[in-house]
Design a protein that fits this description.
Alkaline Phosphatase, subunit A, alpha/beta, globular, about 15% strand, Sulfatase, Alkaline_phosphatase_core_sf
């Protein structure tokens, strides 16, 4: 019986469940071993790009010519329509329109599926950030990366199944990639870009790995003895697996983080300069290197904040920081034959108002009623737009897509029925999509 099936059907009592995880901690049973999906998957892994702060849809991926024509027009209790400060143009053979803020990404238009009808439930950064990651606004629940790790396992036992590149914590902090009630080993491993992405990676006493191996073997025997005497507590099994994974990470991480085997053309394509170990471009390249080595879920959290209540011109620097690197990531995966099996997700927590207050001359407020996220690769219908907002970008007029629908679609592309990927906890089955969610079948190729 599969791990998740046994948990869902509840045939394990507390002792049986603990015994399972205790057994899983042994070398012969890796709790993160690859798991079969509900049906054939289009994608084998995910790279999620999170742009915190609430990216304006009308300034990026949902341009509105009519809004430009009506700039400054007053409507609805004194609100003033505010045009985008940037033009837009068609990209690729599909003619998908993308803002001038993203000229490199526009060149990859034929790989993008823009979901222009996203909406959420809260316009508060903290709650909306939790929601776009875990589907829940209040209380910490497992993030999508933890759910993907739980459902799929990993293809490489020497690397974490769930990795988060994050220099500056987003709103809601590390709760976004927490495993919560899922076993601890599904939690995101935070990597801080810089000279030492993973602190204390080498043995601290300078004696090398041989002595460490003997110490860890002794610790493992003691831990197993302790766990055998406490069959109702599965937490130790997760800690024991974490030690095993850490040893594998010591062996493999230095090679993953090195770019010595990357040619100059590849580094130039991303925009990576000599000695760079912290830029967003470097993180995108690391996402590709980790993905091709079997990591199931890699998230890149932009350290910049797109919360433009004023000075919309700041978007020029923000977009320039990510445009070339994201476009290079798409092209690089495609060139290597990995794009079809790698799902790229680019999201933000909500959009921004297509209008401003009369006394304001710049900036936009939070807006949960309409925003844009996009997908690429991994079985997605490239060169397409799903859903639509009205001529001003205010109201959704076609194919609304709630965050639960977004998550259901991602899981579908990974081979899961979102209603069946569950975990029994505290007396009931939990799932990423709560009690809602519909797959957006029109985004699937």
């Amino acid at each position: 019986m599969k791990r998740r099936d046994a948990i869902r059907t509840g045939i394990f009592g507390a002792a049986g469940l603990s015994a399972y995880f205790s057994a899983a901690s042994n070398a012969a049973a890796n709790p993160l071993a690859p798991q079969p999906t509900h049906f054939p998957a289009r994608a084998k892994r995910v790279i999620q790009i999170f742009l915190p702060g609430g990216v304006s849809h009308i300034d990026t991926f949902d341009p509105k010519a009519e809004l430009t024509a009506c700039d400054g027009k007053t409507f609805d209790k004194g609100k003033v329509l505010a045009a985008s400060q940037w033009g837009h143009a068609a990209g690729g053979q599909s003619g998908l329109e993308v803002s001038d803020l993203f000229p490199r990404l526009r060149d990859q238009a034929d790989e993008l599926c823009l979901i222009r009808s996203m909406y959420g439930d809260k316009a508060d950064h903290f709650e909306a950030t939790l929601s776009i990651h875990s589907g829940a606004m209040v209380g910490a629940l497992p993030g999508i990366g933890a759910w993907v790790s739980y459902g799929m396992g990993t293809e490489n036992p020497n690397l974490p199944s769930h990795v988060v590149f994050c220099d500056k914590l987003p709103y809601a902090g590390s709760q976004s990639w927490d495993s919560n009630f899922l076993p601890t080993y599904h939690q995101g491993t935070r990597i801080r870009p810089g000279d030492e992405p993973i602190p204390d990676l080498n043995p601290s006493d300078g004696t090398g790995h041989q002595r460490q191996a003997k110490e860890l073997e002794l610790l493992k025997r003691l831990n197993q003895h302790h766990a055998d005497a406490r069959p109702d507590d599965s937490r130790l099994a997760a800690r024991m697996h974490a030690f095993d994974a850490a040893v594998g990470l010591q062996r493999t991480a230095p090679e993953v983080f090195s770019v010595a085997d990357e040619d100059t053309a590849t580094l130039d394509r991303y925009g990576i300069k000599s000695g760079d170990t912290s830029s967003f471009a470097w993180q995108c390249l690391m996402a590709r290197r980790m993905s091709e080595r079997g990591v199931r879920f890699v998230e890149l959290v932009d350290r910049n904040n797109w919360d433009a209540h004023s000075k919309m011109k700041s978007y020029e620097g923000l977009a320039k920081n990510v445009d070339q690197a994201i476009a290079a990531l798409i092209a690089d995966l495609k060139q290597r034959g990995l794009l079809d099996e790698t799902l790229i997700v680019c999201c933000t927590e909500f959009g921004r108002t297509p209008y401003r207050k009369p006394e304001e001359t710049d900036g936009r407020g939070h807006y949960k009623n309409a925003f844009t996220c996009w997908l690429a690769g991994g079985g997605v219908r490239g060169g397409s737009a799903y859903g639509a907002t009205d001529e001003y970008g205010i109201e959704i007029v076609d194919q609304p897509a709630h965050i639960h629908d977004f998550h259901a679609t991602i899981l579908h592309l990974l081979g899961f029925d979102h209603e069946r990927l569950t975990y029994f906890y505290n007396g009931r089955d939990f799932r990423l999509t709560g009690l809602a969610g519909n797959v957006l079948h029109d985004v699937v190729a």
